[in-house]
Amino acid sequence: MPDISCKLEISPLKTIYLLHKIPGNKFRIHYFIPIYSLNENQQWDDLGTGHVSSTYVKHLQGVSLLVRSDSQASLILESKINSNTPYQKQQETLIIWSEGENHGVALSFQDTEGCHKIWEEICHIQGKDPSIEITQDLLEESKEEQLHDVLETNNVFDLPNCELCKLEEIADFITAVLASPIRKERLALILENDDYIKNLLQLFHTCEDLGNTAGLHHLHTIIKSILFLNKTALFEIMFSAECIMDVVGCLEYDPASAQPKRHREFLTQNARFKEVVPITNGELTQKIHQTYRIQYIYDILLPAPSMYEENFLSSLTTFIFLNKVEIVSMLQDENFLSEVFAQLKNAAIDDDRRRELLLFFKEFCAFSQTLQPPKKDALFKTLTELGILPVLKIVMSMEDLQIRSAATDIFTYLVEYSPSMIREFIMEEAQESEDGNLFINLVIEQMICDTDPELGGAVHLMGLLRTLLDPENMHATSTKCERSEFLNFFYKHCIYNFIAPLFATTSEDICEGDSEVGSDENNTHCLNNYQTAQLLSLILELLTFCVQHHTYYIKNYILSKDLLRRVLILMNSKHTFLVLSSLRFMRRMIGLKDELYNCYIIKGNLFEPVVKALLGNGTRYNMLNSAVIELFEYIRAENIKSLITHIVDKFYKALESIEYVQTFKGLKIKYEQEKDRQNQIRKNLHSILHSKILRRSIRVMDKKEENCLKGNSEEGEATMPPLEDDFQDRFKFMETKKTKENEDKVAPPKRLSSGGYKYTSSHSAAAANGTRSLQGSSTVGLMNLPEDDENDKEDETSPRKKPHLSL
């Protein structure tokens, strides 16, 4: 079987799912994929793209993998799934197998679903568990081949003699061995136990002295093939001090290049090793030299592995990794760091010396990333004790760009390792500092004052600030809450420095003279200045992050400083990315559905700049148009009533002509629905109040009549049974009472400014000397009807539970 680790480079293709209806109302999914074939030169050839499926093929008498071309419907591949063929799945999207001695086939899937479905079919046919990634052990061969290998004599597998005239034969032999994993193992074992590699390097010197170009090309192929064996024991030989430069020399003579590259010249003359602090340990010095040169070979001289070669030269990368771990450990043991920090703290050293120390320490921190967590914890604890952060504060304020850049990179390693350690130092420094010159404010200043036209440094520092302000990596203990402590500190001591450019650009003087300043794009306070716009966009990006994660702290600052109004001024910029950043900030605020934010927006009429931007954009379909439409659509979909009412009342006339989306008509519909609902509530409340007041008035009259009758009874009036003569008088009395009740009907109540209701009633009573009509009016508060508290409990709710509805 061919070596499946050979370089396979493909362009990513989207997988297209095609559903073909088959009998029984079932569907078979075909996957549109590229297919590759391994040629005799161990290179992958693109056979084209097509639809892969698994189906029973009659003439092959078994289930087969079929790939048909989409354009011509021709058959690209027809491969029977044999029970003894080793199939391998790599990286969840690649299936590879061998069709013959030197013919490999690879199917590349864009997603894992398609790959998994085909893999399940293969495993089902072979009776294997689909969770495995290889159906047969690639190192296993048939029993006959194993027996043949056991009986095979050493002479059959002997390498050709290491002679100048046999270099071509050696190159062909080793290249052929790479196709068989078991033969690769045997070749590596032979090379380990012999001086064969050293003898080859001796021939390299001979070929160079003789100018034997063909021999040098063969040596390039041989040495490169030995490296591809990926064996640590061979690396120990080839990367030893006596051999490594000769290995580099062999790799200079690439047959594909017209002229050899001068890598040895670069490594010996250009790449000079500097000891910023004298290293007395010779083993450490040798290890540093070796690691640098191996890294150079891996990065420069060897081809970069493709995405399908995850184990390509894995032993070499492990070799480099272990070397770096050993270097870091040896430097710690040598008390080397103490000397470095002592010199960095020395104010008398010049900038050149300080630059060299920082560049060394930057590389040391890069190497430290290879340490395991316990060793890394111990290292960074040591660095903290040595005073790494005070040193960085000093060097980051210097004018030298290289020094500042190296210090920023070192600070990055520290922030990525432990944001809590940095936050703790910052707050302790604030308690001890008297001049207010804080380290975090220095970082903010470096971000704001970045001179790079593309603001590369500012972008980097903004990412570090975001990490420090991220509540997700803040810890809470029984004694303190890091989140509240640090955020309180930041919004008290740092936020004003961070948004100073925003306030400077949107100040009243700038806005009043916008016509003059706007015409000068070189003015740093101009919205149309590209670098200023980039910086403001970065600031808005972090402020948007704060709105999402620091809800309480940033809210107080936005409301107290009227921050959103200033942000929306930036929508006047000609740079669309800045306009979108401003809009994104407002969108994040609205997305919180905080009614306090909504009231602030309504009171300040802060939708006006957004509507102007939309109308100014005209009919152009671009990011600005989509972002504004999405903002209004979100308000409609979430039915944010206060904002819907404000938008329709203020801006619907300007927006109703936009008909290519239904967003604004939808807002109007929501507005009308809410208006109808409020009207219905008012009507219901009016009816309820009227019936309540009427019932209470009737009860008052009944109670008065009852009291009057009770008084007459107590005065001793005789109660006589009704007589015929009295019937007319009794009937007249009842008629008079009924008439009186009808006259006491209450007019519908009227709302007073004080919150009560006014109603009028009229009644008449006969007096001894004649009849007179009395009319009166009284004001009745909804909550102040004490007469019937006990009788009307079922009709009333307590004042606390009554809803407050505006009429």
From TrEMBL:
<feature type="region of interest" description="Disordered">
    <location>
        <begin position="736"/>
        <end position="807"/>
    </location>
</feature>
<dbReference type="Pfam" id="PF22972">
    <property type="entry name" value="EVH1_PP4R3"/>
</dbReference>
<feature type="domain" description="Serine/threonine-protein phosphatase 4 regulatory subunit 3-like central">
    <location>
        <begin position="169"/>
        <end position="673"/>
    </location>
</feature>
<dbReference type="GO" id="GO:0030289">
    <property type="term" value="C:protein phosphatase 4 complex"/>
</dbReference>
<dbReference type="GO" id="GO:0006974">
    <property type="term" value="P:DNA damage response"/>
</dbReference>
<dbReference type="InterPro" id="IPR011993">
    <property type="entry name" value="PH-like_dom_sf"/>
</dbReference>
<feature type="compositionally biased region" description="Acidic residues">
    <location>
        <begin position="786"/>
        <end position="795"/>
    </location>
</feature>
<feature type="domain" description="PP4R3 EVH1-like">
    <location>
        <begin position="35"/>
        <end position="126"/>
    </location>
</feature>
<protein>
    <submittedName>
        <fullName>Protein phosphatase 4 regulatory subunit 3C</fullName>
    </submittedName>
</protein>
<dbReference type="InterPro" id="IPR016024">
    <property type="entry name" value="ARM-type_fold"/>
</dbReference>
<feature type="compositionally biased region" description="Basic and acidic residues">
    <location>
        <begin position="736"/>
        <end position="747"/>
    </location>
</feature>
<dbReference type="GO" id="GO:0005654">
    <property type="term" value="C:nucleoplasm"/>
</dbReference>
<dbReference type="GO" id="GO:0072542">
    <property type="term" value="F:protein phosphatase activator activity"/>
</dbReference>
<dbReference type="Pfam" id="PF04802">
    <property type="entry name" value="PP4R3"/>
</dbReference>
<dbReference type="InterPro" id="IPR055236">
    <property type="entry name" value="EVH1_PP4R3"/>
</dbReference>
<dbReference type="InterPro" id="IPR051137">
    <property type="entry name" value="PP4R3-like"/>
</dbReference>
<feature type="compositionally biased region" description="Polar residues">
    <location>
        <begin position="759"/>
        <end position="781"/>
    </location>
</feature>
<dbReference type="InterPro" id="IPR006887">
    <property type="entry name" value="P4R3-like_central_dom"/>
</dbReference>
<comment type="similarity">
    <text>Belongs to the SMEK family.</text>
</comment>
